[in-house]
Amino acid sequence: MKTTFRKITGVALLLGALLLSGTTFAQRGGQGGGQQGPPPMPTDDEIVEMVSELADGISLDELQEAGILQLYQDHFEEVESKMKSGRPDREEMEALKSDLEDGVNALLNEEQQELYKTYLKNKQKNDRR
In Å, what is the CA distance from 129 to each residue of 2, 35, 113? Predict the structure, then answer.
């Protein structure tokens, strides 16, 4: 009788642990547990901060920084517009990103273009973490 009780108690405890771990797993969104959907749109202040960080990182002069700031503001305005009118497809968003990068590169000298390429790679690595 004691053995049967122990078996039933053991099975009940095991089932309880499985249910608890399954619930925790589901609440985290599966294995990834990360953000679903696109990242939040940056504010105007965050855009200024991004460009300022970029300016320091690749030694932009004031004219370049102002031009790149305008490119970033226009880019995020367009992205926001596309997001409001429905979910844009990946290719469309990649094209916008590519256009932004091409616009920035057009304002940079060769040395800055290489630094910008490295900056983007490092930013992409950090964003994945």
Answer: 52, 12, 25
- How much is the pTM? 0.69
Closest among 40, 123, 120 to 80, alpha carbons compared: 40
- What residue ranges of the chain have pLDDT lower than 70? 1-37, 128-129
